[in-house]
Design goal:
Length: 340
């Protein structure tokens, strides 16, 4: 590098434009304007000149200094701009990409049916109760007039648990929601008007049975509750549930140990794609005097009805599902259809 003021500007210009970053520009600046830079040593050299010469040379060097500073500033601005656009390019996001969205959960069709059942029965004055899925065999069977060794116990294939409760009673997964009749009635004074939806368990598995399934129990006990009330309540429920008045209901004699008389409730659509077929929809009956006694009530005073319906069955009919197992396979293609 020469120390002549004339070439210094050119040299600085080259050196600055060679600098490709702000930090290398700082290094380049030091070569000219730093303590040991060329311009500084030129200024130092002024001391040896006579006053006239010094003034002239001094003015010339100052001019050069200003030019170099201006060049430096121009290059600095360029580099700042360049670094900014590099960063913008590196951090660019494609705002035209579709968003990832959130995974929104949905309500299971059986739970949807459950919610409908609850709101319909609430609207006609029924309480909604919830109880244990692990039950003792007194509440699940004995209290419901299903004595030990009675063949009716084997109507339900039961999951027993290898444990007893605090009273020494065998424990099992409840085979129906009917024990909730006993639990609720023993804790409330009549009139008793309640439904108890929930999970139930049996050793059973095919296209229409699953080892875990849902039932809704209904119980209405008063001093004058009759089969006519059962028919009125249940028909109203079905018409609300299926949102049509084009359906009829019939009672077919049946047997349950906890009701006498007992009935199967069948329904038939009188219009629409499923019209004309009787469909079995629920068990029901007038609560057996022995069961009323196990409620802690006097069967001479208190009378009423009970029913127990399968929620999957109701959901299948409402949504046109033909295989019960699809409810429990967790296939989102199936489940998504119920949450559009
Ligand atoms: N618990 C019966 C079952 O699971 C259903 C049932 C029938 C419930 C008649 C009732 C009833 O309350 O009165 O098969």
């Amino acid at each position: 590098m020469t120390n002549s003021p004339d070439t210094l500007v050119k040299e600085a210009e080259t050196s600055f434009s060679d600098a490709n970053s702000l930090s290398s520009l700082e290094d380049a600046k030091a070569k000219f304007l730093g303590k040991r830079g060329s311009l500084t040593s030129l200024l130092k050299g002024l001391g040896g000149l006579d006053p006239d010469e010094r003034r002239k040379r001094g003015a010339q060097i100052n001019l050069v200094k200003q030019e170099i500073e201006a060049l430096l500033e121009r290059r600095r601005k360029e580099l700042v701009q360049q670094e900014l656009s590099n960063r913008l390019a590196a951090e660019a996001i494609d705002v035209t990409l579709p968003g990832r969205g959130y995974g929104v959960g949905g309500i299971h069709p059986v739970v949807k049916a459950w919610q409908r059942v609850e709101s319909i029965f609430r609207s006609i004055g029924f309480d909604v109760a919830d109880g244990p899925e692990i039950e003792n065999d007194w509440t699940n069977f004995t209290a419901l007039n299903n004595p030990e060794n009675h063949p009716a116990r084997s109507m339900q294939d039961t999951f027993y648990i290898d444990m007893k409760d605090e009273k020494g009673l065998p424990l099992l997964l409840r085979t129906h929601t009917s024990p909730m009749q006993v639990r609720y009635a023993r804790m409330h004074k009549p009139p008793i008007k309640v439904i108890a939806p929930g999970k139930t368990y049996r050793v059973d598995s095919d296209a229409t049975h699953s080892p875990m399934f849902h039932q809704v129990e209904g119980l209405w006990i008063g001093t004058d509750i009759s089969f006519a009330d059962l028919k009125g309540v249940y028909t109203h429920f079905l018409r609300e549930f299926f949102e049509t008045s084009n359906l009829v209901v019939r009672f077919r004699p049946s047997f349950f140990p906890f009701t006498e008389p007992s009935a199967e409730i069948d329904m038939m659509f009188t219009e629409g794609p499923n019209k004309g077929n009787w469909l079995e929809i629920s068990g029901a009956g007038q609560v057996h005097p022995t069961v009323i006694r196990n409620f802690g009530l006097d069967p001479e005073l208190h009378i009423g009805f009970a029913f127990g319906s399968g929620l999957e069955r109701l959901a299948m009919l409402r949504y046109g599902v033909t295989d019960l197992r699809t409810f429990f396979e967790g296939d989102l293609r199936f489940l998504k259809q119920f949450n559009k």
